[in-house]
Amino acid sequence: MFTVFVLGNIASGKSTACRYLESHGAMLIDLDELAKSLYVPGSDIVNALAEEFGWDILDGEGGIRRNVLAARAFASPDTVARLNGIVHPVLIEQLSLRILDPVCCTVSSPRYPFAVVEVSAPTGFEDAFGLADEILVISAPLAVRRERAIHRGMESSDFDARSACQPDEASLCNLATTVIDNAAGDNSLYEQLDAWLARHGFGDVADKEEADA
Fold it and tell me: Residue 98 has what pLDDT?
């Protein structure tokens, strides 16, 4: 299955882009949600996280208190790297299984014409890039993203701390096959995504599915 990784820093519009592509026929895989599904009480990955970040990240049932883990894991680039070192190997394995699932990749009658993988934290995840046919970066200037995040209710200090752990826009764009400039907002974003869909022959997927329904 044709697979595109969608990258973008916080408040870039990455999730909006992924939902739009999903509405046009893509199978959407959110790596954050996939990672959360791995946090099974008593599992090796949960125990490893507790040993690294403190056993008090666990709730009374042995599950991850995600807000506590996030506060510690995103405190610095070093703690982010430690988190990624635990989670990414298992995450890449599970992602490979989903992308290469023969049920999703039937040549004669595919359920999904392409897969979109939302990658919130590309740093340290480069080993998985070989699974992608294309890397799409949703880019917006730091000041624009900061304003968006604060408008959505995020504390400015939280945004600044998370941004400090992410690559700068130039470095992120250097990873891209295609860069989508999302400084102007949703309408411009959708126009550029429509052009991308048409270029890859996916532009009429949603219409075809409605006609076949």
Answer: 87
Which three-class secondary structure state does DSSP give residue 116? strand
pLDDT surpassing 60 at residue 208 = no
Mean pLDDT of 116-143: 91
Band of pLDDT at residue 60, cut at 50, 70 and 90: very high
Number of domains in the chain: 1
Is residue 24 classed exposed, middle or buried when 0-12, 13-18 and 19+ CB atoms within 10 A define those classes? buried
Query: What is the dihedral sign for C-alpha 186, 113, 93, 134?
Result: negative
**pLDDT band at residue 107 under the 50/70/90 scheme:** very low
30 within some domain: yes
Mean pLDDT of the chain: 89
For residue 119, what are the domain limits? Answer: 2-208
Higher pLDDT, 126 or 155: 155
CATH at residue 67: 3.40.50.300
What is the structure's pLDDT at 134? 97
